[in-house]
Recover the amino acids of this structure.
């Protein structure tokens, strides 16, 4: 897989793009690839353009929505009547778990709305419909790279003349031996709850099973209008061995796009909740959530449990604030929380620590596909980015490969296999499971290649 | 495990001791030609398929047996076997466990029991044709192997078992007196199983693999060499052709006639 990236690197010099980091949005530092190097005549003299790409990111306003769950015995009709009587706007039901999402009335604050609802004896739970955001860290460095995350042979990552981090040989997820065991099964679908997916991208056009579901715009077309979702999906499941672009972790597994984050990189819990449930109901065996929020919420937890109970492995990014594990990653029983490591198997400083962290995967300068409109004219549709957003799809890809070869395993067993086979790469400082990288950086080889039982 | 092996060895020693202790009694009370006791070493090698024929590997076994043959009437004898087996099923891959295992741990000890029958069908001049049937079962002892290099502690526990059943005619040539060469053509059925249990942290798994021999027809060439009145030495080599190859077996031993 490495030669693909190398080829691009040689023929298509990349351009580092700086992104502005919004208060609540994820941005990823990025490198666009010069498309004109695809022409043979340009190969000997590739043009290198270096510039700054800004993606406008607006901080999301505080939420004005509420999630309400009524007590058992309250019929949906009666519950809706209560909500309509209270003049709550935009009522939407999430029927599988009996939760309603409502807008606060125009003359009431969120706090007043919650107090009012909680006084009602028929209401079991009322809480804010928290906002979600995709994960990344700001970065304005220039760089060149390839897929060290899959196969790291050491050397230098040529980011820019003054930024040249060392690649530690072997600091990868051991993808190549695992691919000898399986390249995944096309019947195994990974749902990406994100900003959508560019379904025309050469890395994904043959991998997407359907146009998916867009819970932001409420339609059946989860086309990516941000780029984050395409990048994340490509890391896990880019078309591989096709002489183009990059390799995905799960060569043959397919992609179900579910849009729960808007073009600005923001979303609401209700969209995430509905996305989890919809994906579980529509054939996903693995769900990747490279997004999340700061607040615990019983409805979000219930949605994770719903997917888990439907035999779906849910993988989520731990978050990039460096503070505590975000939700839904923090739902330890139902979700595999993924932290990020860097080019040397060190814990990435931005990666959220916490006891809920299960494993880690490379999340620094990871190459993935983006829509052509995002890369801009004259550039290849790929960028390098960082964040636990990039780490999570490595794990989702591994989960999909495990489901491919061992479909009888339960989500708990899949999660345990991924946990127990991880490399404890920081055992010198923190032996055993720790809050930074959990059980360790995933090891696809150990998870998939038969363990040699010797005397 | 070691304790169990010691127990089996003790039992076998007891069987041998009883056999030897009973010698005078047998000699006194029975016709001298009715009982034979022997020891033998057999080497078995079979190409086996598993996972419904999707994969193949080789099953090997070293077998040490004590035999007791009883002649029920002229031309009809039964044989009882007991002993130890060392079965090597290297190359088996257990992919139905949470963490797949590639078995390369070599020989696993087991207890071997068997029986056989030998009936003269035709005996005319220098040639004799007998019908030979044999059933041998090896019950493996549990072996435990630690799983190392994982984030949590674990081990795998496995037990191989197998059986061989064969039936076919044997043609012996008695022209040379004490040296009797023979050839046996037999339908030989081998079936094995390897049960593996895995414990790794919270993970547990169980997989039972069934093995079938690729070859079904065995041709064996051997000879009995009588040394004196009571002792007979025996050597035999067998071949099991199968599509794409041939398996082999070998056996050496002796029989003592009381």
């Amino acid at each position: 897989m490495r030669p693909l990236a190398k080829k691009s690197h040689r023929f298509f010099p990349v351009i580092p793009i700086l992104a502005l980091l919004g208060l609540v949005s994820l941005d990823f530092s990025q490198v666009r690839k010069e498309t004109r190097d695809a022409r043979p005549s340009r190969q000997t003299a590739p043009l290198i353009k270096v510039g700054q790409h800004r993606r406008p990111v607006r901080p999301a306003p505080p939420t004005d929505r509420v999630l309400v769950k009524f007590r058992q015995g309250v019929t949906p009709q009666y519950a809706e009547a209560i909500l309509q009587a209270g003049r709550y706007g935009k009522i939407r039901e999430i029927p599988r778990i009996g939760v309603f999402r409502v807008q606060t009335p125009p003359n009431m604050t969120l706090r007043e709305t919650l107090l009012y609802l909680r006084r009602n004896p028929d209401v079991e739970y009322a809480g804010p419909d928290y906002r979600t955001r995709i994960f990344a860290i700001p970065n304005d460095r220039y760089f060149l790279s390839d897929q060290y995350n899959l196969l790291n042979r050491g050397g230098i990552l040529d980011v820019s003349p003054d930024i040249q981090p060392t690649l530690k040989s072997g600091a990868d997820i051991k993808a190549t031996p695992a691919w000898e065991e399986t390249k995944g099964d096309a019947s195994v679908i990974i749902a990406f709850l994100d900003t959508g997916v560019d379904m025309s991208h050469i890395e994904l056009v043959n991998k997407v099973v359907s146009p998916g579901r867009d819970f932001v715009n409420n339609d059946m077309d989860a086309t990516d209008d941000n780029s984050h979702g395409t990048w994340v999906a490509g890391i896990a499941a880019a078309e591989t061995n096709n002489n183009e672009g990059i390799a995905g972790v799960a060569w043959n597994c397919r992609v179900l796009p579910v849009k729960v984050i808007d073009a600005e990189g923001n979303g609401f819990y209700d969209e995430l909740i509905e996305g989890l449930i919809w994906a579980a109901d529509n054939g996903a065996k693995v769900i990747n959530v490279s997004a999340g929020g700061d607040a615990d919420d019983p409805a979000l937890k219930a949605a994770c449990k719903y997917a888990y109970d439907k035999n779906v492995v849910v993988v989520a990014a731990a978050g990039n604030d460096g503070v505590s594990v975000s939700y839904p990653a923090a739902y330890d029983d139902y979700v595999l929380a993924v932290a990020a490591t860097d080019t040397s198997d060190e814990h990435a400083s931005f990666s959220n620590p916490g006891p809920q962290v299960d494993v880690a995967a490379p999340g620094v300068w990871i190459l993935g596909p983006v829509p052509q409109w995002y890369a801009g004219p004259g550039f290849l549709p790929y960028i390098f980015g960082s964040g636990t957003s990039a780490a999570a799809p490595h794990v989702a890809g591994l989960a999909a490969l495990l489901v491919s070869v061992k479909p009888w395993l339960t989500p708990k067993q899949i999660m345990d296999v991924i946990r127990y086979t991880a490399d404890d790469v920081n055992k010198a400082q923190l032996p055993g499971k720790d809050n930074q990288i959990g059980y360790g950086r995933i090891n696809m080889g150990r998870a998939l290649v038969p363990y040699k039982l010797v005397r | 495990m070691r304790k169990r092996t010691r127990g089996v060895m003790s039992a076998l020693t007891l069987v041998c001791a009883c056999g030897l202790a009973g010698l005078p009694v047998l000699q006194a009370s029975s016709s001298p030609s009715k009982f034979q006791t022997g020891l033998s070493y057999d080497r078995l090698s079979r190409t086996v398929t598993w996972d419904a024929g999707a994969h193949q590997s080789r099953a090997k076994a070293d077998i040490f047996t004590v035999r007791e043959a009883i002649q029920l009437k002229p031309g009809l004898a039964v044989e009882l076997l007991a002993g130890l087996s060392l079965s090597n099923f290297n190359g088996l891959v257990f992919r139905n466990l949470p963490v797949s295992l590639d078995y390369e741990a070599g020989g696993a000890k087991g207890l071997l029991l068997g029986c056989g029958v030998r009936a003269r069908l035709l005996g005319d001049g220098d040639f004799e044709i007998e019908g030979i049937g044999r059933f041998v079962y090896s019950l493996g002892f549990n072996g435990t192997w630690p799983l190392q290099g994982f984030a949590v502690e674990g081990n795998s526990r496995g037990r191989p078992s197998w059986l061989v059943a064969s039936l076919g005619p044997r043609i012996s040539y008695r022209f040379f007196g004490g040296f009797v060469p023979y050839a046996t053509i037999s339908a030989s059925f081998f079936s094995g199983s390897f049960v593996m249990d895995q414990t790794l942290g919270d993970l547990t798994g169980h997989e039972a693999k069934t093995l079938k021999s690729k070859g079904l027809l065995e041709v064996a060439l051997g000879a009995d060499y009588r040394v004196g009145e009571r002792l007979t030495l025996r050597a035999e080599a067998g071949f099991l052709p199968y599509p794409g190859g041939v398996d082999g077996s070998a056996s050496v031993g002796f029989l003592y006639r009381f």
